[in-house]
Structures are given as C-alpha cells and as structure tokens.
Design a protein that fits this description.
The complex is a heterodimer.
Chain A (H helix, E strand, L loop, with lengths): L1 H13 L12 H22 L11 H4 L13 E3 L4 E3 L1 H10 L12 H13 L11
Antiparallel strand pairs in A: 1-2
Chain B lengths: L2 H15 L7 H6 L8 E6 L6 E3 L2 E2 L1 H14 L9 E3 L9 H11 L6 E3 L3 H4 L5 H7 L4 E5 L2 E5 L7 H6 L4 H9 L13 H12 L7 E5 L17 H8 L5 E5 L7 E4 L2 E5 L40 E8 L2 E8 L5 E6 L4 E4 L16
Classes of the chains: A mainly alpha, B alpha/beta.
Chain lengths: 133, 357
C-alpha cells in the first residue's frame, strides 16, 4: 500500500499521462505479466524434472512427460479414492507423497504454484471440464 | 508376496474376463495341425531399476520386476525362454544393472536381452554387455528365426561430442520429453549385419524381431520412434511372416505395416500416457491399437505388467497380464491380415476407461 501510494504520488507530481485507470494496462504491463508467468512456467518445468522434489529421485516427468495424463482441466472433481471432491493440487501432493516418497507442499507454496502453472500451461487450449472422468 | 494368491487371481482373470479369447495355452495349441511346432515365451520389459543411494532402490520399480519374475515362473506350460525387452536400469549404472540382474536371476529358464537407452547411455553398453552379452544377434527356435537389434543408438555427434560427461549424456537421454534428447536408430552397421543375417533365411521362415524402440514412427517428441525404421522394414519386407516386438512405450500398442505385425510390451515399472493425450503436439497412434485402460494412480501397479507370447504356425498371440486390470490378448488374425484385440477390437466393444485425453 505504502509503495503503491508513493508511486501514485510520484506519477501525479510528474503529471504523467501514464497514470492508469483501474481498467487500463499498457504493452509494458502485458510484457511484464507475461514475463512473470513464463518465469513460473519455467520454474515449474524445472521442478517437474527435479530429483529433489521428492526423496527417492523419482521425478514427475517419469510418469507424466509434458505433464500429460494430469488432466488439470477436469478439477475440481470427485476423486473416488479420496471420497470427496478434490483440487488438482491435492492430487499433485498425492504424487509427491507416494511415487516420489516426499513431503507434501502447502497449497500456496510457490513450488506448488509453479508445478500447477507448468502442468496447466502444457494443457493450454483444452476446454475446462470440471468433474470429468 | 503371496504367490499362491497371484497365481489364482491370474488364472481367474484370464479365463473369466476374456472368455474364449484366453483359453488355457494347452487348448490353443491343440487347434493347430502340428502342436509340436507351437510354443510360448514370456516377455518382460522396462523395469527401470533406480538407485536412491548405496543399497537403496526405488521400491515401487523393484516390486514390479519382482512380481513379473514370480508370475513368469508360475506359467504352465513353462515358456521356452524369456525375453527381457530393455531398460532394466534407470540411469545405466552398475549398481542398477547388478540389482536388476539379481532379480532376473530368479527366473527359471533361458533369458535373452534387448538393450534399452537407460541401460546404454552412461557407458555405451559396456557393463550391460559384460552381464548379458551381445547387443545384437539372432537365433533359431522351433523353425522361427529370432533377431534382436540394438535400436536405441543415435547420431555420433550427439553420443560422442555433445555432452561434457557420461552422466549428463545419460540424464539427457533418460528424460522422455527432454528436447535435448536425440532420435533412436539402428544404424548402418547393424542394418548391414541384418541384411547378411537374413540372406541365409528362407522367405517362408517366420521372423520375429525384438527392438527396444518401435521399428515404426509414432511420436518423435517422446522417441516413440526409430529414425531408420523404413530401412529396417525394407529388409524384412521379403519375408512371408514377420512380427516385431518392442518395449520403450510402457503401453499396449499394435499395428500392421505391409507384412510386418507390430506389438509392444507393457512396462513393469510405470505406464506412459498415449502420445495424443499431450495437447500440444500432433501424432499418430496406429489406428488398429485399442488403448489400455487409463491408469488409476492409487493402484501402484495399475497399467503395468508383463506378457506371454504364444507362437502358433509362425504367428504371434500376445497376452498382456495387467496387474490391476483385465488381461488382454492381441493375436494375429490371418483373415484380416493384422493383429486384433480378442475382446475390444470392435468399436462397440470398447469401454470408457480406454478413452484417453
């Protein structure tokens, strides 16, 4: 908040036309957001092939090349093995605990965000079908 | 493990669920004029034994191979031999190959070996050859000419000049979806050898070829691919009955190209998605293939398994012994001129878990 208001004041003081309304963004904004997103995809791919994510050296990509067969577009869905409607991240944690024999991540752990971002990016263009089996 | 339970469940699933398609082997053999010429062999592949450190190995992959070995030993009638289809190790190391060889040593019977890329790219097959012998060879068995090829070679520049260390070379090839990998090939030297080897064989002799990678082009992105597949196929074209078995793909695939029937092997370690389920790439799965059920990740061994092959009159029938799923049999149909799944081939016989996306 503090930083934002400082920037806003600075912009006002300069009389810059770049003071954006809430619903406007510039090419520079888009470029920065894309760069941030791409960085997280890249980080996710690195984790997808990282023998240190779990504890036995097994990596996500061993069973899921290009994150195939992860079906992010089908979540949330009823997961019969868990007996409830589950989110994609819960299944990622299931894999970390079982085939990777590792410790699960918090839902908002930046590593989890990166893994989910990578898998979803590999599935881009596929229509959302929550609940699908 | 409880061997008695496994044996019972295997017999139960193979007779009940597949019905007439999976008659006990002895009965299948009776259907032919010269039963003495018919035989079976077991086919185990892709175990990916993976070292954690020291004497610790990934338990999941160990269990897959241990189970395949135990069940193969229970086959009745006893298979004439066992073919191991490659990728015994994950990172090609001596401890992994030794550990895998030790598990395989429990098999009753002669074992032949095929080289996989995970066995090869650390030391270019040196230790594997010490354990298992030649990387390509042929032999005759009951009137069938068997050929084993090392199909996972690649361009010399990639193998010899690109990587700073043998470990990195192995790691780069080990990642199925790694764009730094390189397409597999049989290569000039082996194709020359194959030409000479086949020159001595009569055209009506059934030929069965084993390779690790498919000797057909399915999806280059995951190396479901052999760069010189057409050239190898051309050498096999003059023969009446040719069957190619391959591993690497960790899933059921079958196809017919000209005179050549192709059948893949399941992995004992883990299943792979079918290539078309990767949304960002176009590839063609052989249209004959009825896909195996989508795996339930909560069953550690689901969509993994091993197979036994029944060779009748020089044609092969492959029975896929899936651990947590219905057994499937894919047999060459002489009238159709290609392999067919004995239960699910017709569109209206297929079931929803076979739809991959």
């Amino acid at each position: 908040m503090k930083i934002a208001s400082v920037i806003a004041c600075a912009a006002l003081a300069l009389g810059a036309s770049a003071v954006a309304s809430a619903d406007e963004f510039t090419k520079e904004d888009l470029a920065r957001w894309q760069e941030q997103f791409d960085g997280v995809v890249k980080e996710g791919r690195a984790l997808w092939t990282d023998a240190k994510l779990g504890k036995n050296g097994v990596v996500c990509a061993q069973c899921h090349p290009n994150a195939a067969n992860t079906h992010p577009e089908t979540y949330p869905k009823f997961q019969k093995q868990l007996g409830k409607v589950a989110n994609f991240w819960e299944m990622v944690n299931w894999c970390i605990r079982n085939p990777l024999e590792g410790d699960e991540l918090a839902a908002d752990d930046p590593k989890m965000t990166a893994l989910l971002t990578y898998a979803t990016w590999e599935r881009r263009g596929v229509k959302l079908e929550p609940g699908k089996h | 493990m409880d061997i008695k339970y496994d044996r019972r469940s295997f017999i139960k699933t193979s007779t009940v669920s597949v019905g007439a398609a999976a008659l006990p082997l002895t009965m299948v053999e009776l259907a032919f004029a010269k039963p003495s010429d018919n035989f079976t062999f077991a086919y185990i592949s892709d175990s990916h034994i993976q070292q954690i450190k020291g004497t610790q190995f990934v338990r999941n992959w160990d269990r897959g191979l241990i189970r395949a070995v135990a069940e193969t030993n229970l086959l009745t009638p006893k298979p004439d031999f066992i073919m191991y289809g490659g990728d015994l190790a994950q990172m090609g190391s001596k401890p992994e190959l030794d550990h895998g060889a030790e598990i395989l040593s429990k098999l009753n019977g002669k074992v032949y070996h095929v080289m996989g890329e995970h066995d090869y790219y650390l030391d270019l097959g040196e230790y594997w050859s010490k354990l298992f012998g030649k990387q390509y060879y042929s032999f005759n068995h009951k009137g069938v000419h068997f050929v084993v090829l090392n199909s996972i070679l690649t361009y010399d520049e990639w193998t010899f000049n690109r990587w700073p260390s043998a470990e990195q070379r192995m790691a780069e090839m080990a990642g199925l979806d790694n764009p730094n990998g390189s397409p597999f090939m049989v290569g000039d030297q082996q194709r020359e050898w194959l030409k000479k080897d086949l020159a001595k064989v009569k055209k009506d002799t059934p030929i069965v070829v084993f390779s690790h990678s498919p000797l057909q082009k399915i999806y280059k992105g995951w190396n479901f691919w052999t760069e010189d597949a057409e050239q190898v196929q051309a050498l096999l074209a003059p023969f009446d009955k040719v069957t190619v078995f391959y591993g690497h793909v960790h899933q059921i695939q079958y196809n017919q190209i000209g005179n050549i029937a192709f059948t893949s092997a399941m992995a004992t370690a883990w299943p792979w998605p079918y290539p078309q389920s990767y949304a960002q790439a176009q590839q063609l799965l052989p249209k004959l293939t009825v896909q195996m059920n989508r795996a339930d990740p909560f069953f550690e061994r689901d969509a993994t398994g091993w197979q036994f092959i029944d060779v009748n009159s020089g044609r092969a029938s492959a029975t896929f012994n899936l651990y947590n799923n219905t057994t499937r049999t894919v047999a060459f149909d002489p009238q159709a001129g290609h392999p067919k799944d004995q239960t699910y081939q017709d569109e209206d016989k297929r079931i929803s878990p076979q739809m991959h996306y």
